Here is the input.
Amino acid sequence: PGTTARFTAFSSRPAAGGLATAFRATLDSADPATDSGLWTDRSGGVGLLVREGDVAPGAADAYLGEISPHVSMNAAGDIAFRCALTNTTDNTAVYLARADGWFLLIAREGDTIDNQPGEVTISGLGDPVLNSTGQMVFAAHLAGSQVTPETNDALLARDAEGRVYSVVREGGEIDPDGNGPRTVKGIALDTSAHQRGRDTLDDNGSVGFALSFTDGTFGVFTATLGYTSPADINGDGVVNTQDFIAFLDLWANSGDGADFNNDGTINTQDFIAFLAAWSRDRT
Here is the structure.
């Protein structure tokens, strides 16, 4: 459907949502740059959703490349997928193809992360998992002057307001059992659980993942998704003038938290980074 070619192979794990399905397949196209695509029957009959070689939605300088076979679909018929991008150096992206026909570019290599101040950008993306409220989680590899081999992987989430933020990051500390903090060494998210009848991310925003720690321990954990602005300096859940005043006091007195961009130095760049986050998130 949607082409003059024939199917030659199907991905082993089609996605299901409500009464609809979505699947990746390869074609007998003579051009290897257009020999795979994504199809769905969410409108009734089976139709082509996207194909390699299409202009990349939201990235006019690029074209869609190879599409990952690990597709996620919710009960509303929204479809999330990861694909390569061609004709660009930022060559991986995550998309949401909504049931109403709109395509949203969720994340792309080179993007910043809303709750990670400083020079932290996405340098690689994993397959997404989607729930029925529009929340999404996916693994990401990070880059930047303040990123080290011990802090360069994260589990990211996207909320209904379009913010992309870190849920947990390598190098971060958590206290899983009340016996003191442990430093995260590795993060694993099962992106194929839905196709086996289980949900990594449920409709209440609870996500399950595995963590390993630098002390040699590991475990399976859950977290409830929710964005916390780094500009909420006083921790009251609201970003407003009080946070501006609180940060100004920290910055003027070189207090804890004044190194907002985490580069080891308290200077004008921290104030600029805070102001950008405060302006974006204030209510």
